[in-house]
Design brief:
alpha/beta; 5 strands; Rossmann fold; five-stranded parallel sheet; 138 residues; 6 helices
Length: 138
Amino acid sequence: MEEVYLDSNLLIYGILNEDRIGDLARKFIKEVEIGKYNANISALTIDEFIWKVQKVLGRETAVESAKRIINMENVKILEINSEVLINMLKLYKDNKLDPRDSIHLATMQINRIKTVISSDPDFDKIKEIKRIDFSKEL
């Protein structure tokens, strides 16, 4: 199974979007659940997810949905510690990524994860990783 890092936009589209991109996100999430991937997230992923979901569906739905993600099969929550933050600062400075994407990327690098699942093309700036764009048919 491939090790991947799930960007929060996959999870956000999966719950909030009823269009094609939402369908593709839900399909990919199902593939994680059935074990096609070893998926990784961080506390920041959950923070970003809750922030968006609570704005649209309310606090209670955001909390319950976040619990389902945290308890999902084949999903590991990676630590954000001082090593991640120190690496994040270098990535932020050198690659012109936003701070949150820099934290996600530093978390991936420290945990030797080479693939991110995201519709965010900003990750394409980083040649050492591969981005799988869930918003396009594979």
